[in-house]
């Protein structure tokens, strides 16, 4: 019998009587094989599925993917948890398998954390506090895997404290509504985490602030009952992992890295730390020497092919064609070298990002050290103008502003704040990491002191460098196809040469002459102008795309764009305008308002309208106090004053920026009249807050309107991603004519609708007109109660309005206010009320505490005192009146980033062209889905997923998603790279857009990387194949059309060149087989190839696009450049020209005295047919009579030039003797005309067949 597995002192997790499933007594289950239901789940690498070897036998443990369980109807989350519980109790517990695959354990930890917070009973806005039984099982499994599996413990140790705080929900498990078992499990897990991980030593960081009391009480009640078992000790000092620590307080960071702000690290500890963490250097990109780049250009297969042809021509003493070929080879090498050199600039730019020296504090002394020697825990001093040497957690700042454009593309310096950021995830956008400084960014202003928390390859720049250097750029489809075509042509030439020589020798022709003719014929197989024409065609495509605002950095990318099957596009600024604007305001009395010209930053444009019925014209509201409802005014007042952004106007670089909301209302007009030129408006701050400021200005109530009334901000609680609320407190004089200084105070708050509403106790209903002297009197102390209490029905009413706005693609914010009791402003007599006066009085008393009181400044924490219990910064106390509670609900405001004009049509074009468009955004999934549906990207039955769900999937699982998602929301740059590789693994050709340096790896890995020209960083642009000068999705679609045109034209001239050359080959073979004199001499063959190949083929490279080009599906990257259909076309066209020429030649007098004329006549006939074929090749399916005759004037010039050169070779005395030609006369030209008519008829018949069959060329 198996030994009873040890427990985490947890009781039975499920209370449904499933003792046969989770038997804590140790008895094996009735079914020793476990759950057979999992055996048919196809999950590949996506699921946590592996094999464990026990006693020489493989036990297959099926652990179903925790992410896909919601979409898989064949299995439930309950069954998944039961299966995992079985594996734990009967296969792992008791030390039977202490080590498992790390990647699997990491994904298991992510999946358990994701599911242990599920709520069974829905509350307002879908929330709730009753955890499901499956959530409790996930919580228990999390602790048991920590006890048993080393790799699981390692994965947990790499989690951020904010991730654990959000997922574990310890405040809920210890709350009043929790069960005894949940409380015991919570305390046990707290003991495990705090005992075994130094970074989680403070249990308070694992619990939301408001739940500290409940958790502490719970720990006291269950202290004797729950005992955490210790884990295997790790030898030596456990050093903190490298992480940004933006969610950790400074003292905690100091303790984690065993350092001090006053003395830094001890010098004697540096070598050991360097050995553990490694040196602070970026991964070095592989460098290719200039000579290697040049050598590569000449070892390309097509170039070797041309060089071989040049050698053959030299062997036949045809030096002029040989010279032309060598010039083509050199030009192609120069172009290829230039492109490769430019592409290498992205890697070169990375090597310039390291910082040579850093000012570091060690052993209490400041010194300049080599930045390579920095280790986590070093204290770096920052001065204005210096570059950041590593990723830092800022500890002290003095007006510190850092330019992070190299990472974010945003040129405005970012003001830094060392305060910790409470967040739900460790993947905070770089621009939001106010408490961090990143390697290679630059201090623009101020000074500061920071703790090194990440070095070398783990820094943000190190990750980007490793990603860029680690993904080799694959050959483009056209490069692969041309290489394959070249190899096939070489094989064909060798076979042809052998066959031709064998036939001629078999007919007893001289061996030397036979070999010379065979070599010359082999030369005809190879299209000498192919490489030159391909290069020129793509170069001309680059010029045309540049005119359409698409800058191409690598020539092959032009053609590759034409074969893309997926376009993965950023939403903001590419699919949308990138300008946030207020679209709708819904107030607490149920009235809806709209905004005109909402995205225009000009406050003089646009109005607020009252939305009535859909068929009626909206009513424009006035812009004075007596013409606006109280709910609307106070709502827009919150938008304007609970806000740190502004809008400025600027004429040009010589004029200073001036806030729009200036007290002088005539200043706008005066400025416009005095300074010529258009006014430029610019938002300063977060785009969402800028939109709120503009909304209030369009209503006629800017910030200065309220400032003139004496409104003064006295307190602020900044927004953070955990509270999801921002609030400010203002004071205003009770009577502007009074000198007594009496005032009243109020709080304005905005944030996530559910968070705002859950903090509200009442709402502002309709106010009877005339009841108040001014709408602003709502905020003043009053005996009359204007508000109504919030009921469950009103909650549902607001929820419905919020859902409707979100479904419309709006980003919805809730708005609220409350009055604050203050002395003289409504408070009880002889009391200071709940405002700032009382708070300051309390603070003064606190600061007068005895000397034994703990100091408020940062304490000295070094390696010697890391066990000091006082490792918390002082909590910020909020005045009771300013707490974000007991609010009065005002309404909801919806913001939108409108879709760009023409994008919807471009998406439709993509669908018609067989291209799937995928939206990638950091927005909320509901907002992203609404915009995607508006644009036609997401259709009924389509799929949208979040980045955190993408993290749980392997590349194989992503590739197998059905239906494949069209929207990826809340994604990180890592998700982008994962998405690219997953799509490529299933044979897709992917175009990926991006702007920041973080996007560079995904852009480089994509088949076509597209960088934003306006918002993109230099490194991103250098890693990309194409740069959009206008950041517009429509430009991508136009570039795809241009790419298809380029490939079509390349295919046209390849078919044309091979048709012409094969006509000559078949003609020679037929003549050899029937043993007649060959129709051309070697010199004639080479002259025909020169005049008939290059000029018309070059002209085909600029042929306009055929109708219906974007109605075809993308050409499969797996298909060769020639399909069975195109090979059939080549054979048909070449046989037609060959048979007619053979007939003319056999009809001619071939006696010894007239043989030269017969040769000349055959030469003239075939060459003219080849030139006509060039003109007929302008279209592959469409009738040549349906295209504009003058639509490609270069074809007219090319054919005319070739025809003139042919006439020169025939009729110019002396020169025609060199070519073995003689003048031809009228009957010959009559034969030529007849031949041209027949060829045109056959060409039209061929195109009719292609149109009707729909065969892929």
UniProtKB/TrEMBL annotation:
Pfam families: Cation_ATPase (PF13246), Cation_ATPase_C (PF00689), Cation_ATPase_N (PF00690), E1-E2_ATPase (PF00122), Hydrolase_3 (PF08282). SMART domains: Cation_ATPase_N. InterPro entries: ATPase_P-typ_cation-transptr_C (IPR006068), ATPase_P-typ_cation-transptr_N (IPR004014), ATPase_P-typ_cyto_dom_N (IPR023299), ATPase_P-typ_P_site (IPR018303), ATPase_P-typ_TM_dom_sf (IPR023298), ATPase_P-typ_transduc_dom_A_sf (IPR008250), ATPase_P-type_domA (IPR059000), Cation_transp_ATPase_P-type (IPR050510). Gene3D superfamilies: Calcium-transporting ATPase, cytoplasmic domain N, Calcium-transporting ATPase, cytoplasmic transduction domain A, Calcium-transporting ATPase, transmembrane domain, HAD superfamily/HAD-like. Keywords: ATP-binding, Cell membrane, Membrane, Nucleotide-binding, Translocase, Transmembrane, Transmembrane helix. It is found in: Cell membrane. The chain crosses the membrane at residues 294-313, 319-337, 488-507, 519-542, 1053-1076, 1082-1100, 1121-1145, 1157-1176, 1196-1215, 1221-1242. It is a multi-pass membrane protein. It comes from the Eukaryota. Residues 244-318 form the Cation-transporting P-type ATPase N-terminal domain. NCBIfam families: ATPase_P-type. This is P-type ATPase.
